[in-house]
Amino acid sequence: MSKLGCACGNTIPDQTDNLPYKGHILPDVHHHAFFEWIAQEAQSYVTAVREGQTNAWLLRRFTRSYVDLKLSDADVLNDHIYAKFLEFKRDMYECDHCGRIHVETHKDNLFVSYAPDNQKTNSVLSDAPGD
């Protein structure tokens, strides 16, 4: 997504990272499965490393061209976990004009919106909440 139109008329851009008005939701119905998957995959990777089977582990999960990049363990695990996170998460945005929260539905790029009771922007997704 690159822009989301709010009912107040504001346009919410999404063209970079680390946006103070964007967040992600991990629905509770996926929480356990996601973290269980992380633990299993991390254990599987550690075992492969200990047994000298790292390339075989990588080839079961990635393409040859990815394996040929020879990334660090941290980068490989980050990519692997993030790809799985993308399957489960939903995006959300807070309009910086009216405070309305827009939450992605289970269908990509469809959103439902909720207006705050206090009728103001509350910076709920920022690391420095507003007044």
Low-confidence stretches: none
If you average the pLDDT, what whole number results? 93
Query: What is the total tally of β strands?
Result: 6
Q: Tell me the series of helices and strands, N- to C-terminal.
A: EEEHHHHEEE
Report the portion of residues in β strands. 15-25%
Fraction of residues in helix:
25-40%
> How are the strands of the biggest sheet laid out side by side?
3-4-5-6
Give the overall shape. elongated
| Most strands sheet | 4 strands, antiparallel
Topology:
Blueprint: E1 3-5, E2 11-13, E3 22-25, H1 28-50, H2 54-61, H3 64-67, H4 73-88, E4 90-94, E5 101-104, E6 111-114
Antiparallel strand pairs: 1-2, 3-4, 4-5, 5-6
What attributes characterize this protein structure?
single chain; 131 residues; alpha+beta; 4-stranded antiparallel β-sheet; two-stranded antiparallel ribbon; elongated
Give a quick rundown of the structure:
By secondary structure, this protein is of the alpha+beta class. It contains 4 helices and 6 strands; from the N terminus they run E-E-E-H-H-H-H-E-E-E. Helix content is 39%, strand content 18%.
Would you write up a description of this structure?
- The chain is elongated.
- It has a domain at 28-88.
- Strands 3-4-5-6 form a 4-stranded antiparallel beta sheet, with no helix packed on it.
- The longest helix has 23 residues, at 28-50.
- The protein contains 4 helices and 6 strands.
- By secondary structure, it is α+β, with helices and mostly antiparallel strands.
- The protein has helices at 28-50, 54-61, 64-67, 73-88, and strands spanning 3-5, 11-13, 22-25, 90-94, 101-104, 111-114.
